[in-house]
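Morning run. Coffee first, then this:
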Amino acid sequence: MALDGESMQVTISSGNNINGTLVLPLFEGEEALPEIVEGIPSTLKSQINRVLADGDFKAKANATMTLMGTEGGKAMLVGLGKESKADVHAYREAGATVVASCKKVHGDELTVVFHGADMACMTSFAEGMMLRDYSYDLYKKKDDDHEDTNLSARINCDEGDATTLSAAIDRAASIVSGVHLSRDLGNCPPNDMYPMAFAEKAELWAKQYDNVKVEVIDYEAAKRHGMGGLVAVGMGSSRKPCMVIFTLNGDQKGQHPMLVGKGITFDTGGISLKPGANMDEMKYDMGGSATVFGTMEALASSGYPGKVIGITCMAENMPAANAQRPGDVITTLSGKTIEVLNTDAEGRLVLSDGLWKAGTDYDPEYIVDFATLTGACVVALGHEATGLWSNDDDFRTRIHEAGNDVGELAWPMPLLPAFEKEMTDSKIADTRNLGAGRWGGANTAAAFLKQFVPNRGEGDDAEQITWAHMDIAGTYWGAKTNKMVGHGATGIHVRTMVRLITGE
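And here it is:
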């Protein structure tokens, strides 16, 4: 699937007919086909039973084997591992493995037959298939005889489960559409994905929903509003910065979740120029904004009735005669000043304006920001987990658990007073955009952001708005162990946010 493409179709059947390739999820140690599996051609059934009896397929987690019957019929066996450990995550990974292992021999039709799987596990398997059924080939030349074929899967189940399972998978498909959108945005090359291009895509997207509004604050308006962080980062580029605000169900009253995303559509480092090696990957530096956009799509598409607002801070960080310099002091939307010590610590500058706007112009229940913010986070956690900081321990735990629920790990990190002191230790400004040394860079970045989360209330009764920061530098791309994606952008934490916001 590429931009505006179609994703995999998963349907439900209460019959026993098998269309295309039979997919059999199996537990480790099974020596014969379960009796519940019906409708298999006799020679194919015999072959499967022989393979299982001989121990040629042990059904280790995510192992696969392809079989073809002499009288027709094809099957793919996929391992779930030990039955005692086969939870929803195992089923999701197995579903993704099936799609990743599909070759031309399997065609474009699959029929999945489960045994011993509950509703949640079957839904998770389908989710894994849909998540893995993604490619970004918009820019590849197609042969004249090339025909796009979409993979489809049918899940056979008991008649009494069909309606409920169909509804659950339809909801999962809506959420997956948000993940795929996030990936599309991240994978899009930077010559076509720049700040106002992102804004235009958002405006076009919003037209399909009656309950969604998109507002764009362009460069000139950002200057008038005093968004010094956003303006400073983007002013060196011919493609000027902007802020895009998404509102879902804006007529709803009361406090609501707020999401804020870093959207650096390409990051050269500015005057503090990055090394040339792998700089092409800096198109992914807008992953935070892609996460916000993808989450809004997932919520809107799945029919979430509550109010949610997202802010994306879009800029291209380029070196130029009019670019900001190391040593500059800028004034942000909050009125606080920042001493710019390194122009490659730019994401925190645009977020300073986004966080302040989120907390002062709206009435958030909480604010969560997403940013491919620091290489230090990748050093600390690799590509396996997102760094997670919060000014509220209970809220941090809620996000951590939501991520665990959907198989997207967010690891709690320290937000210590010493880090805050380090980032407010400028001799000539209120804050500095770089720590005093090389150590704890992800922590000092989070401590910097905390300075721009407004308080709620006044005087002695004032309390900082509940806030969390998620550093996705290691998980938004390059996560080779993420079985839900083959390459490129991962769309990480769209599903986490849906779980956090909806509770489902």
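The longest strand covers residues 256-267. Good start to the day.
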